[in-house]
Design goal:
five-stranded parallel sheet, alpha/beta, 443 residues, Rossmann fold, 19 helices, single chain
Length: 443
């Protein structure tokens, strides 16, 4: 759970009151601070004050919806204002809490909260649908997707770790959530992006820390492993985890216990770990950028998600699914998907996979016609050797990397997602390196 806005004493009191009822409770003073925390960890519940210091709550929640954030949202309002705010934010809220807050009422509201239908439809994970049992499945009638679904159903109830591999936008987190849903585990599903957290903070984020363990450790933090006790911890972009931390993760997986930063005592944990990556881990192992023993420990079972270009028959099914759900959310009429349009879509390689297809359908609905002209085919590779810029011999390897990333970003008109794909890194890694380069220049 994430508490956003309100006076510091309000956030502190509510955070401490809810710790015994919620796996992990954190707080942020503003929408900007909340965004930084949400990049690290996926929060299932948001308690948001109606007035935030940096932007309106309604505008911020609308921004979260556009960014595919699915969460149960409870808005804190002054007494008498709840009904009006709930109507104004139609489709964005799971409920309204009026001041002064009563803890039993808050607990009851949390237990009865449901993901708002409009938010769930707009932010449905890539390639999913509701089955008759209420679970979500990966959409697709291709042989590849049938094999993936069969594999997930087989391994979900088992306790072993699972490595989920696939390009960006193929639905790796959806697979992780489905594995958790179909398992017998009753604890929380906790997801963390290893590439979105500064390397020096990741150990504390995962394993927790004691008070005074380092300069900014003003209070005890349990960490995400403890938050996921009895449940599932999903390590997204595991390839971005620092090499020095990988051995500590391996020990936790082997021993079933962890040692918080600054502590000399181990804490037993009962957590199933799922990991994902868009990179080739065996190659990283060969380059000594990823530990071989950790790779084998994670790779007990493996789910490989095929790129959209390798399952062309699924494009029509996915396009119609997104057309129906997104049109309902936007309040507009669906657009016809004729065979000619489907054929044109099947000729496009979809480097962003299902996520890109979903964005294409949403853009088309907003424009009122299929934006087929936006599906530009990639230029054929130039014949002959390409000229590579030379760098000064006194440059460090890190300087070369930063300079090359900046060149690629400029060549792609500042498109960070496209630059990250071309460079073979995650977008968060690209942003972190660019930010670090800017800080060094400023220094």
């Amino acid at each position: 759970m994430l508490i956003v806005g309100g006076a510091p004493e309000f956030r502190s009191h509510l955070r401490e009151s809810l710790r015994k009822h919620v796996a992990l409770v954190d707080s942020a003073e503003s929408a900007a601070k909340a965004g930084q925390l949400m990049a690290r960890c996926r929060f299932g519940y948001l308690i948001v004050n109606s007035e935030l210091p940096d932007m309106g709550a309604q505008a911020w929640l609308a921004e979260l919806q556009r960014n595919d954030v699915v969460a149960r949202v409870l808005l804190v309002a002054e007494r008498g204002q709840g009904a009006g705010l709930s109507q104004a934010m139609n489709g964005q809220l799971s409920g309204v809490l009026e001041r002064p807050l009563d803890l039993p009422e808050v607990i009851d509201a949390l237990q009865n909260a449901r993901v708002p239908q409009a938010r769930e439809a707009a932010a449905a994970p890539p390639a999913d649908k509701a089955t008759s049992s209420g679970q979500r499945e990966l959409i697709g009638d291709s042989a590849q997707m049938r094999e993936v679904r069969d594999l997930i159903r087989r391994i979900a109830p088992l306790p072993g770790t699972v490595l989920i591999e696939g390009e960006t936008g193929t639905g790796k987190e959806l697979v992780a959530r489905w594995l958790h849903t179909l398992s017998t585990r009753r604890g929380a599903f906790v997801a963390v992006n290893c590439g979105a957290i500064a390397p020096e903070l990741l150990e504390s984020e995962l394993f927790g820390h004691t008070k005074g363990a380092f300069t900014s450790a003003h209070q005890v933090r349990e960490g995400l492993f403890v938050a996921a006790r009895g449940g599932t911890l999903y390590l997204d972009e595991i390839s971005e985890m620092p090499f020095s931390l990988q051995v500590k993760l391996l020990r936790v997986l082997e021993e079933g216990a962890l040692r918080p930063v600054g502590s000399d005592q181990e804490i037993p944990v009962n957590v199933r770990v799922l990991a994902s990556t868009q990179h080739d881990l065996p190659s990283l192992v060969h380059e000594r950028r990823f530990r071989e023993d950790l790779y084998f420990r994670l790779n007990v079972a493996q789910v490989n998600l095929p790129p959209l270009r390798d399952r062309l028959d699924d494009i029509a099914v996915l396009a119609r699914h997104f057309m129906a759900t997104l049109a309902e959310n936007l309040g507009v009429e669906t657009l016809p998907l004729e065979s000619r349009a489907i054929g044109r879509m099947q000729q496009y390689p979809w480097p962003g996979n299902v996520r890109e297809l979903k964005n294409f359908i949403e853009r088309s609905l907003m424009l009122g016609s299929l934006a087929l002209e936006g599906l530009a085919m990639p230029a054929p590779p130039e014949e002959g050797p390409q000229q590579v810029a030379e760098y000064p011999l006194d440059w460090t390897l890190e300087e070369v990397k930063q300079h090359h990333m900046a060149r690629v970003l400029r060549a792609l008109d500042g498109n960070k997602s496209a630059a990250a794909r071309q460079l073979g890194v995650s977008r968060k890694t690209l942003e972190r390196r660019i930010r670090a380069a800017g800080e060094e220049d400023g220094a």
